[in-house]
Write a structure and sequence with these properties.
14 helices, 3 domains, globular, Glycosyltransferase, Chondroitinase Ac, Chain A, domain 3
């Protein structure tokens, strides 16, 4: 299917009345005939005269109205007797050049818009029809070929249709106002707007084409200003009541719109192929080499602006609105250079743009099509690396990058807008879409923390650059509105959690462990803290550098660990980081070049993931450097009860000769730093160390086979530039940072250490460390195993494809040892007190797993009967749920 656009000069016309049939008689009295002829002649004369008068009156009114608009566009203060057009005129009464009475062939699946033309009494009538999407695999957006005409099925909008379109339009405009809550400096904009419809270069950089900035194209501020100005004129923008219906402001809006419409690009290849042969540098028009600006960003502002202006739009403005919006909407089903096919958040963005057009034009077919695309997208995506909502509640974009707080946030905002607008209409979401959005929001909750200093909620941005942050940037009140509209308990629970007060980073006081197996991410939340681990595998990607943003992010998924207590630990610090010492990673220091061209990689190893029973969990990562191939290791993070964590690193191999470090943390320096019981006043290196405490987090280091691990602690101010890691114009920063890392020497020696978050003082840390009953059972290339005797929980990881066997000695000589065996690579949690066994296959390659538990001589754990061996067979989840955990109880 070739790309095409719906004609912007599509006009509604009225069919002439059917001709009156003559009487079928052959004989008539001549006198009667003459009398009737005179009657007909008189009647015809009367009707012709009446028709002429009506036409003259209509012409006069239209002429005055056109003159009034002309004067307005010229900035004239002259008055006119033409009817006044009000900002809030209902959408259904607005005259339009893009209306349609077409009915789609299906309302349950996305439909493609086609153009069908017919000639009626010399006037062109273009009807928009909808037909099932053909699933085109066209790889170009530059084709101008039109589809074959199809016979439209026409209908008149029913009262219910008109009601639904009006309700959605009103709600849509309200949501537009909500997104423009920041007061705009409209008087200043009016004063500097030039006669050509542009603002000075000192305010807006209109550079376009190949030399324009790709990310956050400065020229888009032209349309951002127009959108604010239109909202103020319409009525609804904060602190702008004096501009409602203001003629001067409306003139300026038309002037600014006219500039862009007159300079809009006409080569469709420039949508996504700027700088390529189809749209070479120097091609006229306002366009950017980044497809996003041309397909989503600018058309999004255009759609909102034109919807708010609606009936007051001039014909040329209607044409410009339709051209730019429908050009963007026509990208559905077509390969876009730089992104591929529209998926995930991009689908909802473009659907919303099409919806604005459909509402403005009272185009039922287009509104049906837009909502069909929305509900086809808001589902659980099962494919590996799929964009969109995953079964575990994570959100993916760009083929395997965790993006709940970026694209996923935009997706949620779009979905909330679209669904609250559709409430009580024929376009309400189906149960599948409702459940999918509930899954996303429940997953989001685990990834949000609170900065208690500012009392602002934030996302845990784990896969992408930690630039200066603002907030979660979605409206919790709107989520509550949707929850009540759907009568959704899951959404209401999330709302209540986000609204709850907290004195620490753990917003909502969530407690427990959650493994996001689709995107290699684990979250553990306890009283006063949140710890997250981000990994990547053959199914996911580490990060990306797009439009020069995040050039140093190569290590951002190398087992990155962030621990939040106050919530400001990492905020606004990234510009000053040492990007070779990302928190939590194990790295051959500076052996991998950090730049934009080599930042993005898919993982080399499949055995990455974790096991979780909801309360405790284990994250595992087998790693090989995807760029150099010169570093490999295996790492395990055990998250236990009583807010204790345990980390193992084994099977290390490096051929670069660079020093090998395991980073404990890199965050803001706050308060005292204790190493082996002594306060550090400055940076220090230790050839051996047994403990470290800073910022309410303590570390206890296990002795290695060759003694204690070396430790390096760096304290002090570090400076950096936001420009070096992105395109921010913020000034350089200086941050007081704390950096600590263990030194692997010799490189091959495994290490292990305990972590005690939310220990409020050094003494509290020491007391808790003393009470610890953790025992290391095994830490080598084949098995990682521990037992926490205080909670009677054993955790085992079998790294080999054929599994293995490990024996856990009893807590005392009277207790029976327990042997755990598995016939495949796996992660296992065994709770002695309940007899519950939870397993997963982090490689996501197995469909069955057999786990055998045996007990020796001595006192058996609870839930063991007379038998000494108990074999459990697990059917492991597949498809999008592969890698998730399953549980069984020992039979007694």
């Amino acid at each position: 299917m070739k790309l095409y656009m719906i004609s912007q000069d599509e006009k509604a016309s009225t069919l002439p009345p059917s001709p009156v049939r003559g009487r079928d008689t052959t004989v008539e009295n001549s006198a009667v005939i003459m009398a009737r002829v005179r009657q007909v002649a008189h009647a015809l004369f009367f009707y012709v005269l009446l028709f002429a008068c009506l036409c003259l009156a209509d012409h006069s009114i239209r002429g005055l109205s056109h003159h009034h608009r002309y004067l307005r566009l010229q900035g004239s203060n002259a008055t006119s007797s033409a009817p006044t057009l009000t900002p809030n005129q209902p959408a259904s009464t607005a005259p339009d050049l893009n209306t349609s009475s077409a009915v789609p062939t299906s309302q349950s699946s996305p439909v493609s818009m086609q153009v069908s033309s017919s000639t009626v009494t010399g006037a062109s009538k273009t009807a928009v029809t909808a037909s099932p999407s053909s699933g085109s695999t066209s790889s170009t957006l530059s084709s101008s070929s039109a589809p074959s005409p199809s016979t439209p099925v026409t209908q008149t909008l029913s009262p219910g249709d008109i009601h639904d379109l009006d309700i959605i339009s009103q709600r849509r405009i309200t949501n537009i106002f909500s997104a423009l809550s920041v007061p705009a400096d409209i008087p200043a904009w009016l004063s500097t707007l030039g006669s050509d419809g542009t603002w000075p270069a000192s305010e807006i950089d209109y550079t376009s084409g190949c030399t324009a900035q790709r990310a956050n194209w400065p020229a888009q501020n032209h349309w951002l200003r127009i959108t604010y100005m239109t909202a103020a004129w319409h009525g609804g923008l904060t602190q702008s009541a004096s501009f409602v219906g203001n003629e001067t402001l409306r003139n300026a809006i038309s002037l600014a719109m006219g500039y862009w419409f007159s300079n809009d690009f006409t080569n469709p290849a420039c949508l996504d192929s700027g700088s390529l042969p189809g749209c070479p540098c120097g091609t006229p028009g306002l366009w950017n080499t980044n497809w996003f600006s041309n397909v989503i960003s600018i058309p999004g502002y255009v759609g909102q602006t034109c919807l708010m202006l609606n009936s007051t739009l001039l014909p040329s403005e209607v044409a410009g609105c339709s051209r730019m919006i429908l050009r963007a909407y026509g990208t559905f089903g077509h390969f876009i250079n730089g992104i591929g096919y529209l998926t995930g958040s991009n689908t909802l963005d473009v659907a919303k743009i099409g919806l604005d057009q459909g509402l403005r034009a009272s185009n039922l077919s287009l509104v049906i099509d837009a909502y069909a695309r929305v509900h086809a997208e808001v589902v659980i995506q099962q494919d590996v690396s799929a964009d969109g909502i995953r079964p575990d509640g994570s959100f993916g974009q760009h083929d395997g990058i965790l993006y709940n707080g970026n694209y996923g946030k935009d997706y949620l905002n779009d979905a909330m807008d679209l669904e609250t607008e559709a409430g009580g209409t024929q376009f309400i979401a189906n149960e599948t879409s409702k459940q999918a959005l509930e899954t996303l929001v429940e997953g989001d909750l685990w990834m949000i923390y609170r900065n208690v200093i500012t009392d602002i909620l934030h996302w845990d941005f784990v896969s992408t650059i930690l630039i200066a942050t603002a907030s979660i940037k979605f409206n919790v009140s709107e989520l509550q509105e949707l929850a009540e509209q759907w009568q959704s308990d899951p959404l209401l629970e999330v709302v209540n959690s986000l609204n709850a007060n907290s004195s620490d980073a753990n917003s909502g006081a969530l407690a427990g462990n959650r493994m996001f197996y689709d995107n290699d991410y684990m979250v553990h939340r306890g009283p006063g803290y949140i710890t997250t681990v981000k990994m990547f595998s053959t199914r996911t990607q580490n990060t990306e550098c797009t439009n020069s943003q995040n050039p140093f992010g190569f290590h951002l998924s190398d087992g990155t660990v962030y621990t939040y207590l106050q919530g400001d630990e990492y905020e606004d610090t990234a510009a000053a980081w040492d990007w070779n010492l990302i928190s939590g990673i194990t790295t051959d220091y500076a052996a991998t070049p950090l730049n934009c061209a080599t930042a993005n990689w898919t993982g080399v190893e499949a055995f990455v993931g974790g096991v979780s029973n909801g309360q405790v969990g284990t994250a595992v990562m087998r790693y090989t450097n995807p760029y150099t191939g010169s570093l490999s290791w295996q790492k395990t993070w055990f998250f236990l009860e009583n807010d204790v964590q345990f980390v193992m690193v084994a099977a290390l191999n490096s051929t670069t000769g660079a020093p090998l470090y395991s980073v404990l943390d890199q965050k803001r320096h706050v308060g005292a730093v204790y190493a082996d019981g002594s306060i550090l006043d400055s940076s220090c290196n230790f050839t051996s160390a047994s403990s470290l405490w800073h910022g309410d987090v303590g570390y206890s280091f296990e002795p290695t086979l060759v003694g204690a691990s070396g430790l390096s602690v760096e304290i002090g101010e570090k400076s950096g530039s936001w420009q070096t890691i992105g395109i921010s114009n913020q000034p350089n920063i200086t941050v007081d940072l704390f950096v600590a890392y263990l030194i692997h020497s010799p490189i091959s020696a495994p290490i292990a250490y305990s972590v005690y978050p939310a220990t409020s003082s050094y003494q509290a840390f020491e007391d808790k460390k003393t009470r610890s009953q953790l025992r290391t059972i095994c830490n080598d290339a084949h098995i990682s195993a521990i037992i926490d005797d205080s909670s009677a929980i054993a955790m085992v990881v079998f790294w080999d494809p054929l599994g293995g066997t490990v024996t856990i000695p009893g807590k005392s000589q009277l207790d029976a040892p327990v042997t755990i065996a598995s016939n495949g690579n796996s992660a296992i949690i065994y709770q002695y007190s309940t007899g519950n066994v939870t397993v997963s296959d982090p490689s996501q390659l197995l469909t069955k797993l057999q786990v055998t538990l045996g007990v020796g001589l001595g006192k058996k754990p609870p839930h063991w009967g007379w038998e000494f061996v108990n074999t459990l067979t697990f059917d492991l989840p597949t498809s999008g749920s592969a890698g998730s955990s399953v549980s069984k109880l020992l039979s007694n």
